[in-house]
């Protein structure tokens, strides 16, 4: 029998603390170690803020992990390896570790890479995931938009700087949720105007959270949007 703790990938929802599952709440309460993405400047990460109301930091071992936003492979490998080893040290002590991540842990999540690296470096670790409500679900609810009905086709696509690809995605689906849209918002607006679909698009930042912003799409030209922004196009 292994004396290692269990690593949990814990989906904590899109922003509203009340949108975590009962199971996620239980795992938070029972896990002695709470791991979370940590910002270099010291402010709480988005996932950390979501679960803050449920955690007494004096009763938990709060393990902040730095995941640098860079394309430098050497830096990424070094920092990710360091984070995996920090988690493994806690698991070696027989402690369960709950890694909290916004949305769902297996859908565009930081936890996916953590899980893969842990499996490669320490295959003896038991890994479990707790699904969470995604920002896509949260946006549909807040906007009152049915993403799919009957035989409708839906796509979830990271937006990127390719006019033809973004246009094709909209043309070939009944609904598209574009994540990571902030960096290419002007291009997306151009696509929507060319397709005469501006009135079919909605843009939301930090959906369901107390910092949520539902934007007027027609006033977004040149606006500097936060990273946690998505666009829903429903024809």
From TrEMBL:
Q: Which SUPFAM superfamilies match?
A: Tetrapyrrole methylase
The cross-references to CDD domains, in alphabetical order and at most eight, read: Precorrin_2_C20_MT
Record-linked InterPro entries:
4pyrrol_Mease, 4pyrrol_Methylase_sf, 4pyrrole_Mease_sub1, 4pyrrole_Mease_sub2, CobI/CbiL, CobI/CbiL/CobIJ_dom
Residue span(s) of domain Tetrapyrrole methylase: 7-216
Pathway it works in = Cofactor biosynthesis; adenosylcobalamin biosynthesis
Q: Which Gene3D superfamilies match?
A: Cobalt-precorrin-4 Transmethylase, Domain 1, Methyltransferase, Cobalt-precorrin-4 Transmethylase, Domain 2
A Pfam family matched by this chain, by name?
Answer: TP_methylase
Keyword terms of this UniProt record? Cobalamin biosynthesis, Methyltransferase, S-adenosyl-L-methionine, Transferase
Q: Which family does it belong to?
A: Belongs to the precorrin methyltransferase family.
Q: What is the recorded name of this protein?
A: Precorrin-2 C20-methyltransferase
Q: What is the species of this protein?
A: Lysinibacillus boronitolerans JCM 21713 = 10a = NBRC 103108
């Amino acid at each position: 029998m292994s004396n290692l703790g269990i690593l949990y990938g814990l989906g904590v929802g899109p922003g509203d603390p009340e949108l975590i599952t009962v199971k996620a709440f239980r795992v938070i309460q029972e896990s002695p170690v709470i791991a979370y993405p940590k910002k270099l400047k010291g402010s709480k990460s988005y996932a950390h803020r979501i679960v803050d109301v449920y955690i007494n930091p004096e009763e938990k071992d709060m393990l902040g992990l730095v995941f640098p936003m860079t394309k430098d492979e050497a830096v990424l490998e070094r920092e990710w390896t360091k984070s995996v080893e920090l988690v493994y040290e806690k698991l070696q002590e027989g402690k369960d570790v709950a890694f909290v991540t916004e949305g769902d842990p297996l859908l565009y999540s930081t936890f996916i890479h953590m899980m893969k690296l842990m499996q490669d470096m320490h295959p003896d670790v038991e890994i479990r995931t707790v699904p969470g409500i995604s920002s896509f679900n949260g946006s549909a609810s807040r906007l009152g938009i049915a993403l799919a009905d009957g035989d409708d086709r839906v796509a979830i696509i990271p937006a990127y700087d390719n006019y033809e690809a973004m246009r094709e995605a909209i043309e070939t689906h009944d609904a598209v949720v574009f994540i990571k849209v902030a960096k290419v918002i002007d291009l997306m607006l151009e696509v929507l105007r060319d397709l005469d679909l501006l009135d079919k698009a909605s843009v939301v930042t930090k959906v369901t959270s107390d910092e949520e912003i539902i934007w007027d799409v027609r006033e977004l030209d040149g606006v500097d949007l936060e990273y946690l922004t998505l666009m829903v196009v429903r024809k």
